[in-house]
Amino acid sequence: MNPHLIEWLDLVIRWLHVITGVAWIGASFYFVWLENMLERDKADLPPNIEGDLWAVHGGGFYYLTKYKVAPEKMPKTLHWFKWEAYFTWIFGFSLLTIVYYFKADSFMIDKSVADISPMTSVALGVGSIVIGWVVYDVLCRTPLLKRPSLFLALMYLFMVGAAFGLSEFLSPRAAYIHVGAMLGTMMAGNVFFVIIPGQKKMVSAAEEGREPNAADGRYASLRSRHNNYFTLPVLFIMVSNHFPTTYGNEYGWAILAGLSAVGIAIRHHFNVRHKTNNYAWTMAAGALAILALAFVTSPDFGKSDKRAALEAMPPVPFAAVDKIVTERCTVCHSDAPSDAVWKTAPLGIKFDTPDELKKHAERIKIRTYDLETMPLVNQTHMTPEERKTLGAWVLQGAKID
Predict the structure, then answer these.
(1) Rounded Cα–Cα distance for residues 255 and 393 (Å)
(2) 3-state secondary structure at position 282
(3) pLDDT tens per residue, range 202-245
(4) Do 156 and 217 lie in a common domain?
(5) Residue 49 lies inside a defined structural domain of this protein
(6) pTM value?
(7) C-alpha angle with apex 383: 393 to 378, nearest 5 degrees?
(8) Domain range enclosing 255
């Protein structure tokens, strides 16, 4: 497909994915807040009302009530919250297809990780999404659901296991994004297969004059709460491709596990803080955990041997650096890329002149030597010795004369 067309498809669908995702997550956060803030102990509440609250927003006052099960008579207009979820997943999977599956050679496969075919990589990606939903849905239909802490622990271990397993076969970026796609599919699956059908049963019963089954509502509410906890890990994964320090780390799957744990813990605090402050410590603990993760992902952490190897190198002439960059990097990072996918320099970073090389010297060292995430999935076959030469040149002051 024409690279220019692919770029615009990427842009438009990514934009739509973000728009619908904001709408979905915003609704989810709002209704969790609403559920937590309902005043349930008021003496003047009608028998069929579980709670109510007053709110002010945008210069207007709002009064909201929640029924214990359903009103005696359904209103003419009933607002549903489902299309945000459906279209977020549709646009997300479309984006996954355009960016990763159409360009599997460039984004899915890293031969230093596993020498697999494009079709195999796509099958692994799609398979992880399907298996993730099946495992989660089956667990949700077992007695484990009545033991929230154990259920959370098992789901967390499953996510970590999936991250580790995918990182053994796919490129680091692809492994991360497929964990996010797996969690996002669980969220959308909850809406499509559980939450909306449960709500439809309750609406139908009310319309037919039957007593709605409150269990349908409770089960849908529980799955909705699961979605709320999945949200922060998924949001991190959506932006993680901008931060190679995470996915490019030797233990990238463990970094993802740590950041996800922080997100889940902090989300729990916000979910219960209106009832108890017992989890306020997660805010400080989360900040310390992020500082610890930042420390252990620093280029020199636990890599004194790599730095020593650079320090032992003789002076590196700029001509050697320029030759490596011209052969391995300017395929993409130039005014006129020759790469089949990248027709404009990624992030606008170009290495056409000595001054541009010096300007981005530290970034070059981090991406090519410390993390080895560039060239992307090493398409241009940069050798270990070439990486070492670039790293030593930067450590020696990135001299261009």
Answers:
(1) 29
(2) helix
(3) 999 989 989 899 999 999 999 999 999 999 999 999 999 999 99
(4) yes
(5) no
(6) 0.91
(7) 105
(8) 3-37+81-296
